[in-house]
Amino acid sequence: MRINVRVTPNSRKAMVVEVDEVTYEVKVDAKAVGGAANKRLLEILSEYLGVPRSRISIVRGAKSRDKILMVDS
Questions:
Q1: Alpha carbon distance 11, 7 (integer Å)
Q2: Helix (H, G, I), strand (E, B) or coil at 26
Q3: pTM, two decimal places
Q4: 10 Å Cβ neighbour count for 8?
Q5: What mean pLDDT do residues 45-69 have?
Q6: What CA–CA distance (Å, rounded) separates 1 from 59?
Q7: What is the C-alpha to C-alpha distance for residues 26 and 7, in angstroms, rounded to an integer?
Q8: CA–CA gap between residue 70 and residue 67 (Å, rounded)
Q9: Mean pLDDT for the chain?
Q10: What tens digit of pLDDT does each residue of 19-50 get?
Q11: What is the set of domains in the chain, with CATH numbers?
Q12: Is it the case that residue 73 has pLDDT exceeding 90?
C-alpha cells in the first residue's frame, strides 16, 4: 500500500495524525540532518501501523517534507 506523508522534523514529541486512509502527518523528534529524521519516521510509522520497519520504504521525497512511502503487509 502506498501512503502520503507530510513530515515535521525537530518536534518536541513524536506523533502521527491520520488525515485519511492514505495520508498522514507525522511529527518527528529528530533533526533533518544526515537522514536522522527519515530513520525516525520509519520507526514511528512501523510502530503506529504495526508492521516491521523493514517493510516500510521511502519511494519518493527522501529530501522533502512531503513523502510517498510503500508499506508491505
A1: 10
A2: strand
A3: 0.94
A4: 13
A5: 97
A6: 11
A7: 5
A8: 10
A9: 96
A10: 999 999 999 999 999 999 999 999 999 999 99
A11: 2-71 (3.30.1200.10)
A12: no
